[in-house]
Predict the structure of Fatty-acid peroxygenase.
Amino acid sequence: TRLTTTLAPWTDSTLPLLARGYAWLPDRMRATHGGPVRTRLLGRPAIALRGPAAIGFFYDERHISRTAALPGPVLDTLFGQGAVHTLDGDAHRARKAMFLALLKDEAGAAALADHVVLQWSEALTGRDGGRRVVLFDETALILARSVCAWTGVPLSDEAARQMAGDCTAMVDGFATLGVRHWRARAARARQEDALAALVRLAREGEELAGDSGTAFEVVAWHRDADGRLLDPHTAAVELLNIIRPTVAIAWFAVFAAHALHRWPSHRDLLRKDADGHYARAFAHEVRRFYPFAPFVGGLAATDLTWQGETIAKDTLVLLDLYGHHHDPELWDAPYRFDPQRFVGREPGADELVPQGGGDPAHGHRCPGEDITVALLATLAAELAALDFDVPEQDLSIPLSRIPTRPRSGFVLTTARQDP
Ligand code: HEM
C-alpha cells in the first residue's frame, strides 16, 4: 500500500534536507512505502516521486519544465547561469544536440580514456614507491589534465591544478550555505572568466594549441536555436559543463577504491578481466551503490495527475535517484555491493539512473554517461592493477553531507618496487 504524507504548508524541508543530506528523502519515502512525499522546499510546494513509472512521468517534456526550476545558488556554483540544464523545448534540443554530438561518440570516449591512462601512469606508476597520495586529489588532477587536453583547452601545469581544485570546489559547494558555497562561487567565476576570454580570442582568429574539431571549437562556434553564436560567457558555462563533471568522476573513483578496499575479491576479478567486461559491470555497480546525485527536479508545467494525486502547476517535482538504487522493490539485496548484477548485460535505461532517466536526446538525462562509465572502468582497472597500501585513516562516508565521499579522500601509499 502506498501512502502520501502531507505536511502543513508552513513545514519547509529545506533545513532538514541540508542537515540530513542523502538520508532525508529515503527516510520520508519509507514513511509512505515509496509513495509520493509532499513537502515544501525553498518555500515552494514540492512532491517527490520514485520508481520506473515515475521516471517515465518525470521525463515526459509535457509534464516538467526546467526553466526557473533550479535555484540561483545551484546555478552560481554547479551548472552556471544559462546552462543547458535550464532550457526547455527547441532551445534545449538545439543546445543538447551539441553535447550529444561531442559526448555520445565511442571514438571520442576512447581517446579521452587514453589520456587518462597516460596521465595515471605519469602520476602513479613507474615512479619511486612509498609515495603517499590522496587519491581524490590526484584523480581530480589526472581528469582535469585529460579532459582539458581532449577538449582543446591549453593549460599550464599550474592552471591544471587550479582547474582541478576549482571544478571539485564547484561540485562540493552547491548544496550548502557555508564556506564551501562561497569557495564554489569564486571557483566558477574564475574559470568562467578564463574560458570566456579564450572563446573571444578564438573568435578573433587566434590559434589555440589544440587540434581543430575539438570540443572547444565546437562550443565556441555553436549556433543556438535562434541561429546566434553563444555569448562568450554562455560558451564558457557550457565548456565547464564538459570539464567540471569529467573532473567529478574523481568522486566515483574514490568510491571504487573504497569498494576494492572493503571487498578485495573484486581486485582479482578486475586483474583477470582481459576484455573489460567486469570493469564495466563494476563501474555500473559503483554508480548504483554509492551516493552522488541525490535527486533531480523540475516544475510542473501544467496541472498534472500522478497515480490519482493532483500536482498543481509550478509545484517542484523531485525524482528520487539515490533512493531508487536502494529500493528493495527494485533490487535484490540493495545494500550488497555486487557487480555480478551487471555482468554480461547493460542495465535498462530506467533501471540504473545515477545520471538521470529517460532518453538523453529527448530530455535532460546526462549526455556524459558513456564517458563516465568508460573512465570509471578505466580507473577501476588501473586501481586494481596498482600495488598500494592503505594506511590507517577515516574512510567513513557521511550521508549527511551532499556530495559525500570517504572523509580522508582515500589515502594510499604506493608499494616500494623490489630493487
Ligand atoms: C546532466 C549526473 C558526468 C555532462 C546530468 C544530470 C545528472 C548528472 C543527475 C541531470 C539529469 C536531469 O536533470 O534529469 C552526472 C554524474 C556524473 C556525470 C553523477 C559523474 C561524474 C558527466 C560528464 C559530462 C556530463 C562526464 C560531460 C562530459 C552533463 C550535462 C548535463 C548533465 C551537459 C545537462 C543535460 C541536460 O540538461 O540536457 N548529469 N553526470 N555529466 N550532465 Fe552529467
In short: The chain has a mean pLDDT of 93. The CA atoms of residues 173 and 180 lie 5 Å apart.
